[in-house]
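Reopening this one. Same input as before:
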Amino acid sequence: MLLFVIGIEISPSRLWNMKGLVLGLGSLQVLVTGGLITFFVQYFLNSSWEVSVLIGLALSLSSTAFVLQLLTERKLLSSEHGRPSVSILLLQDLAVVPLLAFVSLMAAPELTIGKDIFFASIETLIILSLVIVAARYVLNPLLHILSRFGSPEIFTASALLLVLGSAQIMESVGLSLAMGAFIAGLLIADSSYRHQIIGEVQPFRGLLLGLFFMAMGMTLNLDLFLNNPFSLLLVVVALMTVKFIAIWGLSRLFGIKKHASLSVALLLAQSGEFALVLFTLAYSLSLLDEILFQQLLIIVMLSMLITPILEKLAYRIYLLSRSSGKGMLNIEINETLKESRPVILAGFGRMGKRIAYILNLMEIPYLAIDHNASTVERERADGRPVYFGDAQRSEVLRAVGAADAPFVIVSIDDLDAAERVVSTLHSAFPDITVFARAHDLARCRDLRELGAYFTVSETLEASAELARAALLHMGAEGEEVEVALNHFRKDYYEGVD
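Same output, byte for byte:
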């Protein structure tokens, strides 16, 4: 399930939006860092080239779970060092597909490393092609049918069955269960139903991550570490130094500023959870002996334990860069404006569609969620960023990015549901600005009490526009009409406050 959650976050559209950094910087980071580590492993351990390559590439991967969580808590995902860090992590996560295939193929004694890499590459292309076809022509129609039941439990059960089914299929063709779970996530990564499913499984992520590391910790041979702590710590320092230098150099090569390159290198210097998955799979296939397996687990987990310290140092560098007086603050603000998080529209009925039209005219990005599957499919067919989801659930709102949105507009036709959405937003994201529609004065008052920043009365605005049209038809002066209507609105909305 952990690999499923990580896979679902690798949205193809997200990859395409950052294709320069993802395909360029991300690919080179894996190849260069993996190559350097492979060289040192081969030199000092004198192991087979297959094992050396496996260890090198596995240790080149950083911890997606740790780094994204730390960047999210600091609200630095869109910062000068956050964007390249996320780009590298996205490519690393995608690289897990050929690496899992590579490990499985290594178990075939008749193959050489060249054949392993060749067949792993071919297998990856086939898998990704099948993912695209299955997502488009099988999974989306199936989820559309399931959405008509209107039950969150059905979505949760469907996600679990999808994970288990994909894992079983992968194992039946000679690959790993882990690859199956990861591919299950990729299947719905760019689906209109991804946010709803993320919302359903997100509460389990922290628990699953904790259980995963607990399971890894329980397999550790602490005597091995206690008998030789300095050697293992030296290896950890050497590993993180190699990764730091490689990532810093590549970041500078891609034009990332000095302070941001330092922060990226510090954030990604550790090894990650995917290395643990790969080493565990390799050990289960008898590709690694017991002692080497235990040593690798210790090295990975020690590097992850050091990550919070390095993150604090990276954050200190970030703060110093903003206060250095070299114009960094203005640059950061401009970048934020250009790549601002989209406005969230809760509901895409008649009103939501009209609001979206106005936002488009103003070139303001938006993302809409609606609980009507037919509406979602129709609007997405027209190219609009509308996703299936229940806006009354805080998990779904978090999945679509409500926590970082500039504001949320509640435009749901069902006014009772709108009140529940406003209440959820206020309790889950107390700092978010919420705009909401209401039917009359009483509803406006209720929404304001529930946490809405601004409310609009449908009856008032309809009355005002009808009065405007009638008065202008009678020959009244436009300015006088506007004064009268503004006075009318002022008196009306005073009753809300």
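So the earlier flakiness isn't reproducible anymore. For the record, The radius of gyration is 26 Å.
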